[in-house]
Amino acid sequence: MFTIEHDFDATVVTLIDDPAPHRQGDITINAFEDCVTVEQHDPETDTLRKITLSLGQVRDLAAALNLPEGAYRLRQP
Fold first, then answer.
1. Which of 29, 41, 42, 51 could lock onto 13 through a cystine, CB 3.0 to 4.6 A?
2. Which 8-state DSSP code applies to residue 43?
3. Considering only CA atoms, which of 1, 39, 40 is closest in space to residue 20?
4. Residue-range domain boundaries for the chain
């Protein structure tokens, strides 16, 4: 399950882990004009973990999800 919200400066997608034997915490993805952040609460340390991806990294990740094992370089549009 997921939700999508459009804020003033970002589109926010929240991925909610459906009930499972090893359920993980929800993930929030913030898509800004120049980067994308991925956040998840760490219950062990009670902190918010965040990583930031450039738009190029996001494009590479999207392409990688549909490719077989290997090393690739995407051509710039």
1. 29
2. T
3. 1
4. 2-64
Model-level pTM? 0.79
pLDDT in tens, 13-67: 988 877 777 778 889 999 999 999 999 998 889 999 999 999 999 989 988 888 8
CA angle 47, 5, 24 (to 5 degrees): 40
CA–CA dist 55, 8 (Å, integer):
19
Tokens encoding 67: 């490719």
Phi-psi region of 46 (alpha: psi -120 to 50; beta: other; left: phi over 0): left
